[in-house]
Write a structure and sequence with these properties.
The chain is mainly α. The chain contains four helices and two strands.
């Protein structure tokens, strides 16, 4: 899907939720971060799920995830970081 392609291309700097409450549309950030870690590694997951969102809250510049993906080999349309 598009989200994985965006991550693979290095176009994603952070992952967030548009959840408004815990009942109707609850956040699923833990599951999202685990899936990102499984595909791209813990360092990418931590960057886009924790570190860069914190930088936004602090009004500081983010580290582009693409800079961490540069030089990695592409396998089956996604980066193979393992």
């Amino acid at each position: 899907n598009a989200a994985w392609q965006f991550l693979s291309s290095g176009w994603v700097s952070l992952v967030a939720t548009d959840s408004h409450d815990m009942n109707g549309r609850s956040p699923r950030m833990t599951a999202a971060c685990r899936q990102i870690a499984a595909r791209f590694g813990e360092s990418i997951a931590r960057l886009v799920c924790v570190e860069n969102p914190m930088m936004v809250l602090r009004s500081q510049g983010m580290q582009p995830a693409g800079s961490m993906l540069l030089g990695k080999r592409i396998h089956d349309g996604i980066f193979n970081i393992s």
